[in-house]
Amino acid sequence: MRRDISSTHAKSSQSDAPFVSGVGINATDTIIRLPEFPSPDSKLELLSAQVSPGGQVASALVACRRWGLSARYTGKNRR
To answer: How many domains does the chain have?
Structure first.
């Protein structure tokens, strides 16, 4: 039985939504703010830098949660 989530996810509750499970590698994103887009072969002083959790699977699961789907990440922390 195929279920069309595009028409039901907005009105369904979290428990009625399809469950999404993501398996991936733990990663980080480095976000650097610049005062302007750099021209080729130029240097700019950065405004700020931030390291945040990220990666393709993690970002996709965040989007799923924001759309109202139930989503969980499965991965391994390296120590």
So the answer is: 1
pTM, full prediction: 0.51
Structural domain for 51, as ranges: 23-36+43-73
Locus of tokens 């965040």: 62
Mean pLDDT, 10 residues at a time, the chain of 79 residues: 48 62 86 94 95 86 91 75
Q: Is residue 47 part of a domain?
A: yes
